Amino acid sequence: MTTPTIDVVDELAGIAPEDAADALRRRRPVTREQLQASFDALFLPVDDGAFPLAERELVAAFATRSTADDRTAAFYAARARSADPDRAEAVLGEASAAATAGPFGRYAEDGLQDENTDGRRYEPSIAARDVLGERLTAALAHAHLLTSRPRESSGEDLDRLLDAGWSVDAIVTLSQLVAFLAFQQRVAAGLRVLTATSDPRPFPASEEVSA
Questions:
Q1: Could you tell me which residues come within 8 angstroms of residue 85 by beta carbon, excluding any fewer than 6 positions away?
Q2: Are 91 and 35 in contact (CB under 8 A)?
Q3: Positive or negative CA dihedral for 77, 83, 85, 88?
Q4: What's the pTM value of the predicted model, to 2 decimals?
Q5: pLDDT tens for residues 25-71?
Q6: Residue 119 DSSP SS3
Q7: Which residues pair with 117 in a beta bridge?
Protein backbone atom coordinates (compact mmCIF):
# COMPACT_ATOMS: atom_id res chain seq x y z
CA MET A 1 0.00 0.00 0.00
CA THR A 2 1.44 3.36 -0.97
CA THR A 3 2.09 6.24 1.37
CA PRO A 4 -1.02 8.44 1.74
CA THR A 5 -0.88 11.74 -0.14
CA ILE A 6 -3.69 13.18 1.98
CA ASP A 7 -4.19 13.86 5.66
CA VAL A 8 -6.42 10.99 6.71
CA VAL A 9 -8.34 12.92 9.36
CA ASP A 10 -9.07 15.67 6.82
CA GLU A 11 -10.42 12.98 4.50
CA LEU A 12 -12.58 11.44 7.22
CA ALA A 13 -13.93 14.82 8.31
CA GLY A 14 -14.50 16.14 4.80
CA ILE A 15 -12.19 19.10 5.37
CA ALA A 16 -11.21 21.13 2.31
CA PRO A 17 -8.09 23.30 2.14
CA GLU A 18 -8.56 26.78 3.54
CA ASP A 19 -11.95 26.18 5.10
CA ALA A 20 -12.63 26.98 8.76
CA ALA A 21 -11.86 23.50 10.07
CA ASP A 22 -8.63 23.40 8.07
CA ALA A 23 -7.59 26.71 9.61
CA LEU A 24 -8.41 25.32 13.05
CA ARG A 25 -6.31 22.21 12.51
CA ARG A 26 -3.39 24.24 11.19
CA ARG A 27 -3.32 26.08 14.51
CA ARG A 28 -2.26 22.77 16.14
CA PRO A 29 0.33 21.45 13.68
CA VAL A 30 1.97 19.07 16.18
CA THR A 31 -1.34 17.36 16.97
CA ARG A 32 -2.13 17.12 13.28
CA GLU A 33 1.26 15.63 12.45
CA GLN A 34 1.10 13.15 15.33
CA LEU A 35 -2.28 11.83 14.25
CA GLN A 36 -1.03 11.24 10.73
CA ALA A 37 2.21 9.73 12.01
CA SER A 38 0.23 7.30 14.17
CA PHE A 39 -1.82 6.24 11.15
CA ASP A 40 1.34 5.75 9.10
CA ALA A 41 3.03 3.71 11.85
CA LEU A 42 0.05 1.38 12.16
CA PHE A 43 -0.90 1.02 8.50
CA LEU A 44 2.48 1.46 6.81
CA PRO A 45 4.61 -0.58 9.22
CA VAL A 46 8.25 -1.32 8.58
CA ASP A 47 7.62 -4.91 9.71
CA ASP A 48 4.15 -6.43 9.93
CA GLY A 49 5.26 -9.99 10.51
CA ALA A 50 3.66 -10.32 13.96
CA PHE A 51 0.46 -8.53 12.96
CA PRO A 52 -0.03 -8.61 9.17
CA LEU A 53 -1.39 -5.52 7.47
CA ALA A 54 -4.47 -7.32 6.15
CA GLU A 55 -5.43 -8.28 9.71
CA ARG A 56 -4.94 -4.67 10.82
CA GLU A 57 -7.31 -3.51 8.09
CA LEU A 58 -9.90 -6.10 9.10
CA VAL A 59 -9.68 -5.19 12.80
CA ALA A 60 -9.96 -1.50 11.89
CA ALA A 61 -13.08 -2.13 9.82
CA PHE A 62 -14.64 -4.07 12.69
CA ALA A 63 -13.72 -1.62 15.44
CA THR A 64 -14.98 1.46 13.61
CA ARG A 65 -18.18 -0.12 12.25
CA SER A 66 -19.16 -1.66 15.58
CA THR A 67 -18.79 1.82 17.10
CA ALA A 68 -20.61 3.91 14.49
CA ASP A 69 -21.95 3.71 10.94
CA ASP A 70 -20.13 6.84 9.78
CA ARG A 71 -17.58 8.10 7.28
CA THR A 72 -14.70 6.65 9.30
CA ALA A 73 -16.30 3.21 9.30
CA ALA A 74 -16.87 3.44 5.55
CA PHE A 75 -13.23 4.43 5.00
CA TYR A 76 -11.89 1.41 6.85
CA ALA A 77 -14.49 -0.93 5.34
CA ALA A 78 -13.23 0.03 1.88
CA ARG A 79 -9.63 -0.57 2.92
CA ALA A 80 -10.53 -3.97 4.39
CA ARG A 81 -12.33 -5.02 1.21
CA SER A 82 -9.27 -4.02 -0.78
CA ALA A 83 -6.85 -5.86 1.51
CA ASP A 84 -8.84 -9.08 2.01
CA PRO A 85 -12.15 -9.16 0.10
CA ASP A 86 -13.26 -12.59 1.26
CA ARG A 87 -12.75 -12.09 4.97
CA ALA A 88 -13.82 -8.43 4.91
CA GLU A 89 -17.47 -9.27 4.29
CA ALA A 90 -17.52 -11.67 7.22
CA VAL A 91 -15.85 -9.10 9.47
CA LEU A 92 -18.28 -6.36 8.46
CA GLY A 93 -21.21 -8.65 9.08
CA GLU A 94 -19.89 -9.35 12.57
CA ALA A 95 -19.36 -5.63 13.15
CA SER A 96 -22.93 -4.79 12.23
CA ALA A 97 -24.22 -7.50 14.55
CA ALA A 98 -21.94 -6.29 17.36
CA ALA A 99 -22.69 -2.57 16.96
CA THR A 100 -23.50 -0.90 20.26
CA ALA A 101 -23.27 2.38 22.09
CA GLY A 102 -20.64 2.44 24.79
CA PRO A 103 -18.65 2.41 26.84
CA PHE A 104 -20.43 0.34 29.44
CA GLY A 105 -19.57 -2.48 31.81
CA ARG A 106 -19.05 -3.45 35.41
CA TYR A 107 -16.41 -2.01 37.69
CA ALA A 108 -14.31 -4.39 39.76
CA GLU A 109 -13.36 -1.71 42.28
CA ASP A 110 -15.32 -1.28 45.50
CA GLY A 111 -17.45 1.82 45.68
CA LEU A 112 -18.12 2.03 41.94
CA GLN A 113 -20.84 -0.58 41.63
CA ASP A 114 -23.60 2.04 41.36
CA GLU A 115 -21.97 3.18 38.10
CA ASN A 116 -22.21 -0.24 36.46
CA THR A 117 -24.04 -0.24 33.14
CA ASP A 118 -24.77 -2.94 30.61
CA GLY A 119 -25.01 -3.22 26.85
CA ARG A 120 -24.54 -5.54 23.93
CA ARG A 121 -21.66 -7.95 24.43
CA TYR A 122 -19.93 -9.57 21.50
CA GLU A 123 -19.12 -13.21 21.02
CA PRO A 124 -17.92 -14.25 17.53
CA SER A 125 -20.45 -16.42 15.73
CA ILE A 126 -19.66 -20.00 14.79
CA ALA A 127 -19.84 -19.02 11.11
CA ALA A 128 -17.31 -16.23 11.71
CA ARG A 129 -14.95 -18.59 13.50
CA ASP A 130 -15.12 -20.97 10.55
CA VAL A 131 -14.35 -18.23 8.01
CA LEU A 132 -11.97 -16.05 10.00
CA GLY A 133 -10.25 -18.50 12.31
CA GLU A 134 -9.59 -18.33 16.04
CA ARG A 135 -6.74 -15.82 15.78
CA LEU A 136 -8.73 -13.11 14.01
CA THR A 137 -11.98 -13.67 15.88
CA ALA A 138 -10.05 -13.37 19.15
CA ALA A 139 -8.75 -10.01 17.93
CA LEU A 140 -12.27 -8.85 17.04
CA ALA A 141 -13.57 -9.83 20.46
CA HIS A 142 -10.70 -7.97 22.10
CA ALA A 143 -11.34 -4.88 19.97
CA HIS A 144 -14.99 -4.89 21.01
CA LEU A 145 -13.98 -5.25 24.65
CA LEU A 146 -11.61 -2.27 24.49
CA THR A 147 -14.04 0.01 22.68
CA SER A 148 -17.30 -0.96 24.40
CA ARG A 149 -16.41 -2.08 27.92
CA PRO A 150 -12.77 -1.28 28.68
CA ARG A 151 -13.43 -1.24 32.42
CA GLU A 152 -13.84 -5.03 32.27
CA SER A 153 -10.54 -5.82 30.54
CA SER A 154 -8.23 -8.06 32.52
CA GLY A 155 -5.27 -10.38 32.28
CA GLU A 156 -7.60 -13.19 31.31
CA ASP A 157 -8.42 -11.34 28.10
CA LEU A 158 -4.74 -11.16 27.22
CA ASP A 159 -4.43 -14.87 27.94
CA ARG A 160 -7.19 -15.57 25.43
CA LEU A 161 -5.22 -13.70 22.77
CA LEU A 162 -2.06 -15.62 23.63
CA ASP A 163 -3.97 -18.89 23.42
CA ALA A 164 -5.27 -17.85 19.97
CA GLY A 165 -1.74 -17.40 18.67
CA TRP A 166 -1.03 -13.73 19.33
CA SER A 167 2.46 -12.77 20.50
CA VAL A 168 3.01 -10.20 23.25
CA ASP A 169 4.32 -7.66 20.73
CA ALA A 170 1.34 -8.22 18.46
CA ILE A 171 -1.08 -7.76 21.38
CA VAL A 172 0.56 -4.43 22.19
CA THR A 173 0.15 -3.30 18.58
CA LEU A 174 -3.45 -4.54 18.49
CA SER A 175 -4.28 -2.52 21.60
CA GLN A 176 -2.53 0.55 20.18
CA LEU A 177 -4.49 0.16 16.95
CA VAL A 178 -7.86 -0.01 18.70
CA ALA A 179 -7.04 2.98 20.92
CA PHE A 180 -5.90 5.02 17.93
CA LEU A 181 -9.02 4.19 15.93
CA ALA A 182 -11.32 5.19 18.79
CA PHE A 183 -9.57 8.53 19.12
CA GLN A 184 -9.40 9.15 15.37
CA GLN A 185 -13.08 8.33 14.93
CA ARG A 186 -14.10 10.78 17.68
CA VAL A 187 -11.88 13.53 16.30
CA ALA A 188 -13.23 13.09 12.78
CA ALA A 189 -16.83 13.09 14.02
CA GLY A 190 -16.26 16.30 15.95
CA LEU A 191 -14.62 17.98 12.99
CA ARG A 192 -17.50 16.97 10.72
CA VAL A 193 -19.89 18.72 13.09
CA LEU A 194 -17.66 21.77 13.10
CA THR A 195 -17.42 21.77 9.31
CA ALA A 196 -21.19 21.55 8.97
CA THR A 197 -21.96 24.33 11.44
CA SER A 198 -19.07 26.79 11.27
CA ASP A 199 -18.74 30.04 9.38
CA PRO A 200 -17.18 29.14 6.00
CA ARG A 201 -14.59 31.91 6.42
CA PRO A 202 -11.24 30.81 7.92
CA PHE A 203 -10.45 31.78 11.48
CA PRO A 204 -8.18 34.85 11.66
CA ALA A 205 -4.61 34.07 12.61
CA SER A 206 -4.91 35.99 15.88
CA GLU A 207 -8.02 34.19 17.13
CA GLU A 208 -7.51 31.79 20.03
CA VAL A 209 -9.22 28.49 19.35
CA SER A 210 -8.82 25.14 21.09
CA ALA A 211 -8.49 22.00 18.96
A1: none
A2: no
A3: negative
A4: 0.82
A5: 888 888 889 999 999 999 999 999 999 999 999 999 999 999 888 99
A6: coil
A7: 105
